[in-house]
Amino acid sequence: MNLKKITNFRELGGYRNKNKQMVKKGLLYRSGQLFELDDAQKNYLTATVGIQHIIDMRSEDERAQFPDTTLPGAAYTVLDILKDATTNDASLGHMITEQGDVRENMLATYEQLAMSDSAQAGYHAFIRDLLAAPEPTVFHCFAGKDRTGVGAAIILKLLAVPNETIMADYLLTNQERKTANQVILADLKKQGVPVSQLQTIAVALKVDAAYLAHYFQVIDTKFGSFDQYLRQGLQLTDADVDTFRGLYLQG
């Protein structure tokens, strides 16, 4: 089978936590958007990986412009993480139209990922969905880097995976998206986007350790700790956390 890799698709299973327990394989997958997948890619997700649930964290506009490829038998859930955020640099459209300092804009977006009502409600629903149905699930946004990156970080942090491992998984996006980002920039250049703006978009298409660090710093400042964020921000109970660890850890 001639399989072209799905952009930024990878699993969270296999990581070890601080207690040497392993995140179960075959259940938790993160990805970029699942737009215009070919038959080989669809077959890989359905027959090889066995995806049963797709969680789409994108906006209504993004979903309309780049609809997900339907997978037979897979449930589809929309969680618009940044729906009511005042700052959202996480979509391609915003990257193209946004003015100002890209790093400051991205830091503001990560603050929204911690504090906006839609993000807290969305990540609450995200964890609750994973609690309700521990089955092969892929979650994604546009690039699989910001909304998805935070979603993956929440899962791994909740499972007591070390911060260094969480950051390494987050930064892996820059390697995984290298080709896709080059294609985006080449297409925008053909459309006549100025070089200065292309340089800005190139920065926005990448993740930076400072972004995820800022997300966790905001949580510590506003809630006191990640555990308090889980309980007060995401409205998860101690029983939810214990059950989640029981479902997704082994060893």
Q: What is the radius of gyration computed over CA atoms, rounded to a whole number of angstroms?
A: 18 Å
State the order of secondary-structure elements, H for helix, E for strand: EEEHEHEHHHEHHHHHHHE
CATH superfamily: Protein tyrosine phosphatase superfamily
Structural class by helix and strand composition = alpha/beta
Tell me what the CATH architecture is. Alpha-Beta Complex
Shape, per Cα inertia axes: globular
Could you name the ranges where pLDDT drops below 50 across 5 or more consecutive residues?
none
Total count of strands: 7
Total number of distinct structural domains:
1
Tally of DSSP helical segments: 12
> What percentage of amino acids are in beta strands?
5-15%
End-to-end Cα distance, whole Å, is: 34 Å
Query: Going across the major beta sheet, what is the strand order?
Result: 1-3-6-4-5
Q: What is the CATH first-level class name?
A: Alpha Beta
Keywords: Hydrolase
InterPro entries: Prot-tyrosine_phosphatase-like, Tyr/Ser_Pase_IphP-type, Tyr_Pase_AS
Enzyme class: hydrolase
EC number: 3.1.3.48
Structure description:
- The chain is an alpha/beta fold.
- It has a single domain (10-250), classed as Protein tyrosine phosphatase superfamily (Protein-Tyrosine Phosphatase, Chain A, Alpha-Beta Complex), CATH 3.90.190.
- It contains 12 helices and 7 strands.
- The chain has helices at 39-49, 60-65, 92-97, 102-115, 117-132, 147-158, 163-176, 178-190, 195-204, 209-223, 226-233, 238-248; strands at 10-11, 22-23, 28-31, 53-56, 75-78, 137-140, 249-250.
- The strands form 2 sheets. It has a 5-stranded mixed sheet, with helices on one face. A two-stranded antiparallel sheet has the order 2-7.
- Helix 2 (60-65) links the parallel strand 4 (53-56) and strand 5 (75-78).
- The longest helix is centred in the middle third of the chain and has 16 residues, at 117-132.
